[in-house]
Amino acid sequence: MLLWPFVLIARLSIKGFYGVNIGFDLGPLTVITGPPGSGKTMIIELLWRVFKGVRDRVNLDGFTRVGDARIDMTITLDEWVKRKLEEVGYPGDSVTISIGVDEGGYVQAIKIDNKEIIVTEYRNSLSRVKYPMDVDVADTSILLNPDGLTPKEQALQLVGSASEDFEATLSVIKILRDFIIGLGVYRIGPYIDFRGRSRGTDERYMDFIGEHGDNLVEVLSQLFTDPRRDPDIRFLRKVLSELGFRNFRAGWYGGELVLSYVDKRGLVHIGDELPCHMKTMLALITQLMVARRPSVILFENADYCLSEGLGQAITKFLGNYIDGRQLIMEVRNKWFIDEMKMPHVVLYNVA
């Protein structure tokens, strides 16, 4: 299966964090590499924190900054969002979220294509809209939060003359918020470590294996018992068998959920500790299989414990499951990059 060119995060620019000054376009599969200390891990962390800032307060603390710092992230909009925006008079194909950081707080800006929609400020625990008008509001510490953009009582008179424009702006913010809240955003790494067994107390179907694979046994067990996923399971078992892990299964055994397989020597393993490289591969493969569409998967140290030759097996899974999902990986080994022989791969080297 060919890689479908779905790109959620289309472009990223970072300035000032750890003295880094970069800007690049992303692809369906983006591989970020560079020498130790170059800032490649920081890129994953910043992306994660921007998405978290939509659900919770923006937090870009903890990064060393050289002067004022800023991140700009451009997200491709789907057809439904485009139609909704056009209905309220703001047509466009993308939204750019910008967050500038200085010693006093944050300045956040939202653009549809190149048209600025709103600029807000959160400084010394005070919230303010700076554009399209200058007014104190309830709370700008959360990104794309229309409820927090309600003018304070003493500012209501200021809003009156431009209330229609401001209401239109809030409509745009709500549309964008609903879109981004509905995305799947997953962060994995920088290491994968889980046991081959679990008590399986949470039986909900999950679309996230956990940051370090904590939920992986439960998620795989649910896939194995879902008839709709039979083609996925057959494909998974075939590829793992080629790597020496035959008859791979996930399910109940002795009152626990376990992973089981037969190794190259013919020994049966039931609930045993898995080899480190198999943990990393299962984490990436399983997350790709269960991630919702559309989604972005951020994988820090994606080649953890892997060795040459395994990249080819991972490529098989990427070709089947990247459709509707964007994978951004931070990797540290050149051989892994060389083995990613797929269309639409973007390699970015942080010098």
Structure keywords:
8-stranded antiparallel β-sheet; 9 helices; 2 domains; 5-stranded parallel β-sheet; alpha+beta; 351 residues; Rossmann fold; single chain
Please characterize this protein's 3D structure.
- By secondary structure, this protein is of the alpha+beta class.
- The chain has 2 domains: 9-181, Rossmann fold, CATH 3.40.50; 195-291, no CATH class.
- Helices cover 30% and strands 30% of the residues.
- It is built from 9 helices and 17 strands.
- The protein has helices spanning 40-55, 79-87, 156-160, 163-181, 216-224, 230-242, 276-290, 310-321, 334-339; strands spanning 9-17, 21-25, 29-33, 65-76, 94-101, 105-112, 115-123, 126-131, 135-136, 184-188, 197-198, 246-253, 256-262, 268-270, 295-299, 325-330, 345-349.
- The strands form 3 sheets. Strands 2-1-4-5-6-7-8-9 form an 8-stranded antiparallel beta sheet, with helices on one face.
- It is elongated, with a radius of gyration of 23 Å.
- The mean pLDDT is 90.
Present the secondary structure layout.
Layout: E1 9-17, E2 21-25, E3 29-33, H1 40-55, E4 65-76, H2 79-87, E5 94-101, E6 105-112, E7 115-123, E8 126-131, E9 135-136, H3 156-160, H4 163-181, E10 184-188, E11 197-198, H5 216-224, H6 230-242, E12 246-253, E13 256-262, E14 268-270, H7 276-290, E15 295-299, H8 310-321, E16 325-330, H9 334-339, E17 345-349
Parallel strand pairs: 3-16, 3-17, 10-15, 15-16
Antiparallel strand pairs: 1-2, 1-4, 4-5, 5-6, 6-7, 7-8, 8-9, 11-13, 12-13, 13-14
Helix pairs in contact: 7-8
